[in-house]
């Protein structure tokens, strides 16, 4: 039997079929239902696309999954964009998927629910991680479209409620393919800036699920969660909910409601401040009344301080006089004692003194006289020292050196600090020989009086 010259090997046939297949179908959209979905440790997606009568193997490599907005699973109807290829190891053809989308409006809703569930499991919706809004923000950043009625309504209501707030507008697209990228970048830019923004407001008017989809993107949700500045989500109408609403620190039903939630009206602040001021004045007056009553009872119990001062002065002078008289009496007694000792000495040994001769008697007298004089001098020095101590302790002695006592009229409270006698107060100045009633004109380190 003769064989033809052109005999294909399996490898050659497979390679030529692969070239024909990949050359004929470089890229295409393919619709089908997912089945046999699996994810090996490599992270790639392997599944089968099928319709009523046929099926084809498919692979979605991990490097292209970043743009996928939902989690594929069996039974989903999808649209896949990719290219046909042939896997030589098994001789099977397959589609290498580069992009995948859910089919129809229900696909968007499913993607919304899947992302919501995933972020919920991660804890991004937990109330404990939400940041409180400042009581009175000074600067607010609004991320929204610069055109349209949304920003105008927001500013009108905000400034009607409180005029002293600075608003920075970060213009972005709020609809379309690049809208989520611009919103994410705006949030990150505000957090990096040094403008002192205290609240971020995401604002957009109402629309369909497709119109609001930029605020359902995962990148926007994670930018809100990562923001160190509190974020208010004010998207759509009251019935509209987005992923951003769940992640934000506070959800407002509309942009106008966000302006109302942001701050209390200025009139309410003024009423509140006035009420606090009145309460503070009442409290101070109450405290002053209590101190006045305590002072009154103290003065009633202690008496007039001037009388007590005079009594202490007279008592001190009396003590000084009595001390001087006592010292003088003590000195006289000691002098008498010394005279008596001298007489006893002369009487006890008169013969010895005579036998020693006149000169010996005179020497003894001189010695005794010197001893007595030294003792007297010592007593006199002690007396003078005690007298000086009494003079130093006497308040009148202090006033004699040029000092003065300053007291506030009519309470006669002693002035120790400049703050105790502010301008306009009457004071009484006690000096060594008299008193002066004066009016304080000016205070400084040393205040002058008139």
Strand content: 15-25%
Uncertain parts: 351-358
Q: What's the number of structural domains?
A: 4
Report the helical percentage. Answer: 40-55%
Distance between the termini: 145 Å
Strand order of the largest sheet: 1-2-3-5-4
What is the CATH C-level name of the largest domain? Alpha Beta
Specify the overall morphology. Answer: elongated
Give the SSE string: HEEEEEHEHEHEHEHEHHHHHHEEEEE
Biggest sheet layout:
5 strands, mixed, barrel
Structural class call reads alpha/beta
User: How would you name the CATH homologous superfamily of the largest domain?
Assistant: Succinyl-CoA synthetase domains
Please give the number of β-strands: 15
What is the CATH fold-level name of the largest domain?
Answer: Rossmann fold
Q: Please tell me how large the radius of gyration is.
A: 53 Å
Count helical runs. Answer: 12
For the structure shown, list the relevant keywords:
12 helices, Rossmann fold, 450 residues, OB fold (Dihydrolipoamide Acetyltransferase, E2P), elongated, 4 domains, five-stranded parallel beta sheet, alpha/beta
């Amino acid at each position: 039997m003769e064989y033809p010259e052109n005999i294909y090997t399996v490898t050659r046939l497979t390679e030529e079929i692969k070239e024909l297949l990949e050359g004929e179908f470089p890229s295409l959209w393919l619709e089908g239902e997912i089945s046999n979905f699996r994810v090996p440790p490599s992270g790639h997606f392997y599944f089968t696309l099928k319709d009523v009568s046929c099926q084809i193997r498919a692979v979605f490599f991990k490097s292209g999954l970043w743009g996928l907005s939902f989690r594929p699973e069996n039974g989903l109807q999808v649209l896949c964009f990719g290219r046909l290829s042939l896997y030589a190891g098994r001789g099977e053809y397959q589609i290498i998927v580069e992009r995948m989308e859910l089919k129809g409006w229900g696909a968007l809703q499913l993607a919304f629910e899947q992302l919501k569930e995933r972020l919920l499991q991660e804890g991004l919706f937990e109330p404990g991680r939400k940041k409180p809004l400042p009581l009175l923000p000074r600067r607010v950043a609004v991320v929204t479209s610069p055109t349209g009625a949304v920003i105008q309504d927001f500013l009108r209501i905000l400034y009607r409620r409180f005029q002293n707030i600075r608003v920075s507008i970060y213009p972005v697209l709020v609809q379309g393919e690049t809208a989520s990228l611009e919103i994410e970048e705006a949030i990150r830019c505000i957090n990096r800036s040094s403008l002192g923004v205290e609240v971020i407001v995401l604002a957009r008017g109402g629309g369909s699920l497709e119109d609001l989809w930029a605020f359902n993107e995962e990148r926007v949700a994670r930018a809100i969660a990562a923001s160190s500045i509190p974020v208010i989500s004010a998207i759509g109408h009251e019935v509209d909910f987005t992923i951003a609403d769940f992640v934000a620190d506070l959800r407002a039903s509309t942009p106008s409601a966000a302006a109302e939630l942001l701050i209390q009206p200025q009139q309410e602040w003024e009423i509140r401040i006035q009420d606090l001021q009145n309460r503070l004045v009442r409290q101070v007056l109450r405290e002053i009344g209590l101190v006045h009553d305590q002072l009154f009872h103290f003065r009633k119990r202690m008496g007039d301080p001037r009388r007590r001062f005079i009594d202490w002065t007279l008592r001190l002078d009396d003590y000084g006089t009595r001390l001087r008289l006592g010292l003088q009496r003590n000195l006289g007694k000691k002098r008498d004692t010394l005279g008596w000792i001298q007489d006893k000495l002369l009487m006890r040994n008169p013969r010895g003194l005579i036998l020693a001769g006149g000169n010996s008697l005179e020497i003894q007298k001189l010695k005794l006289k010197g001893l007595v004089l030294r003792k007297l001098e010592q007593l006199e020095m002690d007396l003078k020292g005690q007298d000086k101590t009494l003079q130093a302790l006497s308040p009148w002695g202090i006033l004699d050196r040029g000092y003065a006592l300053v007291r506030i009229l009519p309470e006669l409270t002693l002035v120790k600090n400049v703050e105790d006698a502010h301008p306009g107060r009457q004071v009484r100045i006690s000096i060594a020989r008299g008193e002066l009633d004066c009016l304080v004109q000016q205070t400084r380190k040393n205040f002058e009086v008139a």
